[in-house]
Amino acid sequence: MRLNAQNLTLAYDKRRVVEDLTVELPAGKVTVIVGANACGKSTLLRGLARLLKPAAGTVLLDGKDIHSLSTRAVAKTLGLLPQTPVAPDGIAVADLVGRGRYPHQGWFRQWNTDDDAAVASALRLTDTLELSDRNVDELSGGQRQRVWIAMALAQQTDILLLDEPTTFLDVTHQIEVLDLITDLNRRAGTTVAIVLHDLNLAARYADHLIAMKDGRIVAEGAPLDVVTEKTVADVFGLESRVIPDPVAGTPMVVPVGRHHSARRPEASTTAKTPGFLANPQDGLSALSMEAAS
Amino acid sequence: MSLGTRPAANAAERADNGAMVLPGRSHLRAQRAVKIGSLAFLILALSAATLLLGRYTVTIPDFFHIVAGADIPGASFIVMENRIPRVLIGILVGGAFGAAGAVFQTMLRNPLASPDIIGISYGASASAVFAIAFLGASGLALSGFAMAGALAVALAIYVISRRGSVAGYRLILVGIGFSAVLQAVVSFLLTRTDINVATDALAWLNGSLNSSNWDRVTVLSMALAVLAPAVVVLSRPLRGLELGDDAAAGLGVNVERSRLALIVTGVLLAAVATAAAGPVAFIAFLSGPIARRLLGGYRPLGTAALVGMVIVLAGDFAGANLIPGVSLPVGVITGVLGAPFLLWLLATANRSGQGG
User: Fold this and answer.
1) Which residue among A110, A266, B65, B101 is least enclosed by CB atoms within 10 Å?
2) Which residue intervals define the domain ABC transporter in the entry (chain A) (predicted)?
3) Are strands A30-35 and A191-195 parallel, antiparallel or unpaired?
4) Structural domains counted in chain B
């Protein structure tokens, strides 16, 4: 199942957020979209999920214009976990996960054993089976996010889009959630697209990385090719060192910043002089010159 | 967040349920069935109490004789023309108000978003009082005015709060603004009119089942025969909508269309109920949250309708029998219950991080 966009322009009212963008999610791979705040990455995800009508261009689901398909047909193929979904007060975990079966049900097809099986398997995959009769309100942030992912899984789609699924989670739960998504991708071959904030996690978990700035794609490809000191500077305006991640071997971004350059005593002594504070650019170029030497 | 505080309990659950698929589901279902059954039983019990007890007590055998067609002087009239329509109107109005409130509260994810808080009921009141005071309307015509008023105000609130998408808070604030204006209109109309007419209008404004008759039962049941299936149909997209617009769209809900249909249905439910019994205070507001506490959001519309029926029947029975010799309209009783509940809800809603 292919999902791609051709010359896609997305706008809220008159404000254009995504401009003339052509992109394809590689089937069966994990695509991660990164970029600074307000670069249009979440908007792109919403556009791909048919939540926004394009101002220009098209989104194609398996070659067909996604806006020509019925809402339900799309929902059977493409699942979306928005950034801030709302759990109704007092809802039980199993009930919330059951909502994922919505597109598979209808007037003449009520809840049946397929639905039970889908919910049970989603709960098992996300390791939330033992929470199933608990109230969503009483869960921890990490558990809650796993339950939301379980809902998206119960939808049993070939494509899954997730908008910042790790926001508000501590680092342990971030890893847990991303590992879980990787499991799904590997086990079921689900095509996954994730919008992420953390560049290092993005580089580690992505098969295909898309870096966006001002509504356009600046670079895309394998993390090893995309995550370079130059791209990081382009996309985030951040000076950094890129080193191999000691665990995964994927690129790891180490931001430079103005302070705390511990290995460079000269730099930190310069940092104490008022002249450096008054003109941070000098300090930065001093640092990079040092790095070059 | 509570998980950390009870690791032992969680470990026990894990051990108990590890082997089962969907642990606790059958348990949960049984619990719900018991609660819904209890609500239904309460409705039956309260109906029986209203039918049989009161200033004139009817025995159970007599009641069945009367229904079968026997003519017992006095009792027959009270049962057939007064108590049966009263109970039926109570059930229908309670159900309609309860479901109407739950439609808005669930869709906007805020217990304050019920038609009696956001001005829709006041729209009905202002229009009805105008009709009573200046056109001498009564009966069906009065009901028609109440409905038109409710719809007009709902439309105005929708249009004003729409900008972009219908954001819950804006709709509620605009609605509260409308309530204030319309209350002033009602007060103004009452001061400009003859004292006898004003008394009539006030009786209507209280909301009561006193003027229940078979005509009203017929009209109300016809209206609800159309609206009830609509509620059943729309309760499906509502299950998606209450997760937020994006999540709903992701699940395949047609967000804009479903929301508009839900608003229209909710307003019509509140409007036909108001037309039949007056704006019975707080039924729409109370039923949804109570049903949610009881059943954890399971079938929010249906369970709120049941709770609404219980409140109206109980309020009416209490109003008629609480103080010997004094018959209070149901709206007075529910008003007394509703105000503290509103305060409690406002005090606790944000503390628990729920209800917006």
Assistant:
1) A110
2) 3-239
3) parallel
4) 1
Neighbours of B336 (CB within 10 A): 15
Residue A274 lies inside a defined structural domain of this protein: no
Residue B111's closest chain A neighbor by CA? Answer: A89
In chain A, % of residues over pLDDT 90 = 36
Cβ-based neighbour number of residue B327 at 10 Å: 14
Q: Find the CATH number of the domain harbouring B76.
A: 1.10.3470.10
Residues B216-234: tens digit of each pLDDT: 888 889 989 999 999 989 9
Q: Where are the alpha helices (DSSP H) in B53-119?
A: 60-68, 75-77, 84-107
Report phi then psi at A162, rounded to 5.
-130, 125
Cα separation, A228 vs A220, whole angstroms? 12
Interchain proximity B243–A90, CB inside 8 Å: no
Length of chain A: 293
Domain CATH code at residue A195? 3.40.50.300
Helices (H), A109-264: 113-125, 141-154, 171-188, 199-205, 223-226, 229-236
Per the structure, the complete domain to which residue B321 belongs is given by 68-351
Cα dist from B301 to A182, A192, B235, whole Å: 39, 36, 7
Could you give the CA distance from residue B321 to residue B64 in angstroms, rounded to a whole number?
23
Confidence (pLDDT) at B63: 87
ipTM of the complex: 0.80
Which residues does chain B have within 8 Å of residue A50's beta carbon, measured at their own beta carbons? 249
Q: Do A132 and B25 lie within an 8 Å CB cutoff?
A: yes
Rounded CA-CA distance B242/A86 in Å is 7
- Per-residue pLDDT of A109-127, as tens digits, reads 777 788 888 898 888 888 8
Give chain A's count of helices (H) and strands (E).
12, 12
Count: domains in chain A:
1
> Quick one: closest CA in A to B254, which residue?
A71
